[in-house]
Amino acid sequence: MSEYQYNKVTPEMIEKFKEIAPKRVLVGDEINEDFTHDEMAIYGKARPEVLVEATSTEEVAAIVKLCNENKVPVTPSGARTGLVGGAVSIGGGVMISLTKMNKILEYDKENFVVKIQSGVLLNDLAQDAEKQGLLYPPDPGEKFATVGGNVATNAGGMRAVKYGCTRDYVRAMTVVLPTGEIVKLGATVSKTSSGYSLLNLMIGSEGTLGIITELTLKVIPAPKSVISLIIPYENLEDCIATVPKFFMNHLAPQALEFMEKEVVMDTEKFLGKQVYPKEMEGIEVGAYLLATFDGNSEEQLEDIVEQAAEVVVEAGAIDVLVADTPALKKDAWAVRGALLEAIEADTVLLDECDVVVPTNKIAEFLTYTKSLEAEADFRVKSFGHAGDGNLHIYTCSNDMEEAEFKKQVAVFMDKVYAKATEFGGMISGEHGIGHGKMDYLAESLGPVQMRIMEGVKEVFDPNMILNPGKICYKL
Ligand SMILES: Cc1cc2nc3c(=O)[nH]c(=O)nc-3n(C[C@H](O)[C@H](O)[C@H](O)COP(=O)(O)OP(=O)(O)OC[C@H]3O[C@@H](n4cnc5c(N)ncnc54)[C@H](O)[C@@H]3O)c2cc1C
Q1: Model's pTM, two decimal places?
Q2: Which residue of 39, 98, 142 sits with most ligand 1 atoms within 8 Å of its CB, as the best mutation to test the pocket?
Q3: What are phi and psi of 409, to 5 degrees?
Q4: How far apart are the CA of 150 and the centre of ligand 1, in A?
Q5: Would the CB of 153 count as within 6 Å of ligand 1?
Q6: Which atom of ligand 1 sits closest to the CA of residue 139?
Q7: How many C-beta neighbours within 10 Å does residue 370 have?
Q8: pLDDT band of 1, cuts 50, 70, 90
Q9: How do residues 152-206 score in pLDDT, each as one tens digit?
Q10: Residue 82 in contact with ligand 1 by CB distance below 6 A
């Protein structure tokens, strides 16, 4: 139980909010239902008392300061595409939406950085950078998330295997602290050894330590050519066993995703497309790798494709399909991009886990989760980032009672997280902890690390007003 006492928003506070952010303050039932949950509603819904759509750092600071003085909780929200109940006002109070802070401010092409407001959508940044001949490498599946949300969750995505996660592209940021103070963390430099990295502490803190309002992000010159390969296998074990062989052979895929046939077929049905082969050379396909390579000339890519084909066929692939037309490449990736959407469209009750395990343990881990399916009344569907061992495992039901579903899922998740820890993995590879995964984090990290996290939280947020009930601080 929380030892901190919170207050309700008062009419006087609402008047002050309206002075700070005229016409951008919504109260009670004026707030759309969309703001009561993120993409994983199973972790609970809550309507904030007040929603403020901020347009500047100063507005955010003024609102947070007022809330801190009055001990009213504040929840920052981006596009609410999160999968762990992070942007949900479970403690009541004020939600500050950053989505109207959506300006790309300036490129510095000599230092390879771009400065943006934190509510810019990933899709908008990616397209704008492309027009400049640049690439912003982080590529999480949901393109309509905000970049601020990506930074707050240290989002990963498809290109992490070659280029790293969001953390690797954050150079500097402007943050409003829970006290309402504004700080600038980091700088437009490519290295630093200047005390504790508060910048890195803020990345992945899921809106519990500060509200990010501006970001300076590293970009790179865009590779000139990109090509994707669809690689079918008879079974998942052979498919996963190929992964280290790419790296041993100096093939550095930009993306390396695995998918099992059943999940691909469901998604193709959802999209109304047939893209992936189901049978080849008389062999029934069981799983696929989808690999993308980039390079700076067509010739370089041709060499890579030739070498990759040799490596994977020797490692047990049935064949290799080169997605050499823009349409095929788009379709192949459209299926990958819609896996979760297809699961959501076909499922009434849904929960997920986002563990990361050493890559050589992926197949064994998935075989284990499948074995647990036999003991449960729900279905289990999985896919993930083969190159970095980050697995998304979904429990799905259309006919169970919610209470029974939750009870059975809790048993399943306990075992799944325990196995991930036993294999040397971690609770979350990229979605974060939010509200939904707090117990599993505490279980896996143990009391000493949790005590340090709680201490950090208290230093940043003495009144515990910022996004309470998330990561390490229970309500
Ligand atoms: C179809 C689908 C595919 C996805 N694929 C991926 C994937 O490949 N990789 C991946 O990592 N994630 C993925 N996600 C999860 C989700 O898109 C990411 O977690 C994303 O980073 C959330 O951004 P958002 O703007 O929606 O943030 P929200 O959901 O609004 O918020 C997420 C958390 O960040 C905090 N927050 C938001 N903005 C700020 C800010 N400016 N300052 C401080 N805190 C803030 C919130 O309080 C909350 O705790 C996927 C989700 C969906 C629905």
Answers
A1: 0.96
A2: 142
A3: -65, -40
A4: 5
A5: yes
A6: 8
A7: 14
A8: very low
A9: 999 999 999 999 999 999 999 999 999 999 999 999 999 999 999 999 999 999 9
A10: yes
